[in-house]
Design a protein that fits this description.
There is one protein chain. It is built from eleven helices and twelve strands. The strands form two sheets. A ten-stranded mixed β-sheet has the order 1-2-3-4-7-8-9-10-11-12, with helices on both faces. A two-stranded antiparallel ribbon has the order 5-6. The longest helix has 15 residues. The chain is elongated, with a radius of gyration of 21 Å.
């Protein structure tokens, strides 16, 4: 367990839970029982563990705590059925999650922090800064709650909600280990995507774990100068440094990189931008996800028109770079990162 971090019951690995159970004078098999109740049956109250002694349940509540998140609000899109959840944490913090339903299964976009300190100018998540990191249990709970509420299995997870996952590295790694554990949800690593604005040392550190998760880089610009205007992190790490880290990730994992590129009208959506981007990434095993930027009232960015988007895509494809245009999900319910959470916290 990491030093100076106090984890709750749901954040413990099975081995750590076994140690706790033995410290309490109980037999080791109880740990697997409890772990199954939490991570397979997705209980919201320890008293649901009917085959676990009441005394042990009380000891666990006292020693570690068990506080599931609470749903404050849920909006469902009339356009595509996308659901946006607003959750309250134990300390009153508010986070958001999005459930997107596809033919291939249910995908949940989760938050990894309360707020964000990265400052990307087209993202509502950063407008009020970072409050705190989420515990592994608080990331898990977003998935567990949605799966329990819908009675449908979550098959894909995207860490692309509020927060920069690699800015909460240790807790996110523990979350990944828990959600892919065979004694829990047992989700395939290949069905998990982590999105980062480009924290180079953490990309390399994650690559060394050799997990089979997908890595998405929020690039959004073909040049360092333009990227500095859009994303403050560009003042710390250049695009060349990010691309070198991406190549390292591919070498360690064999996983193709996805570059997220939000198209802003008149800013980064011109043919010359596509040409520069092509030159920079053509030697990488990658895919470009073109995203019509979500307008937010605090910024004056406008979405590129369809012709500009398709011309940009075509130029990439002519140069043998795989590119897709992200399908907009839940636009009528403010499903862009941070939008609904910010509206909720400002009005409640």
């Amino acid at each position: 367990m990491e030093q100076n971090v106090q984890y709750d019951l749901k954040s413990l690995t099975l081995q750590e839970l076994e140690e706790v159970i033995e410290e309490l004078g109980e037999k080791k098999f109880r740990a697997k029982q409890i772990y199954g109740w939490i991570h397979q049956k997705l209980i919201q109250d320890l008293d649901e563990m009917v085959n676990v002694p009441k005394k042990l349940r009380e000891q666990l509540k006292e020693k570690l705590g068990f506080s599931p998140i609470k749903e404050l609000e849920r909006l469902v899109s009339n356009i595509d059925g996308t659901s946006k959840f607003i959750f309250a944490l134990q300390d009153g913090s508010v986070i958001e999650s999005v459930l997107m339903k596809y033919k291939h299964g249910n995908s949940v976009c989760v938050s990894s922090q309360v707020g964000c300190r990265m400052g990307c100018r087209f993202c509502a998540s950063t407008l009020d800064g970072l409050s705190r990191n989420l515990l592994p249990s608080e990331i898990l709970d977003q998935i567990y709650y949605i799966q329990r509420a819908t009675k449908e299995r979550v098959s894909n997870i995207v860490l692309m909600g509020t927060g920069e996952p690699f800015d909460n590295y240790e807790n996110v790694m523990r979350f990944l280990d828990l959600v892919t554990n065979e004694n829990g949800l047992n989700l395939s690593q290949r069905n998990i995507t982590i999105s980062t604005c480009g924290l180079v040392p953490k990309i390399k550190q994650f690559a060394d774990r050799k997990m089979q998760c997908n890595l998405a880089i929020s690039l959004h610009s073909p040049t360092d100068e333009m990227r500095k205007e859009l994303m403050p992190i560009a003042k710390r790490y250049t695009i060349d440094e990010i691309l070198e880290a991406c190549q390292y990730f591919f070498e360690q994992t064999g996983r193709r990189i996805t570059f997220e590129y939000s198209l802003v009208a008149g800013v980064n959506d011109k043919p010359e931008h596509a040409k520069i981007l092509t030159k920079r990434i053509k030697n990488l095993n990658c895919h470009v996800n073109l995203i019509p930027v979500n307008p937010i009232k605090e910024r004056d960015y406008k979405q590129s028109n369809v012709d500009s988007i398709m011309e940009f895509k075509a130029m990439l494809e002519r140069n043998h770079i795989n590119a897709t245009v992200r399908r907009e999900m839940g636009r009528d319910i403010q499903a862009a990162c941070g939008q609904l959470r910010r509206k909720y916290t400002k009005t409640n």
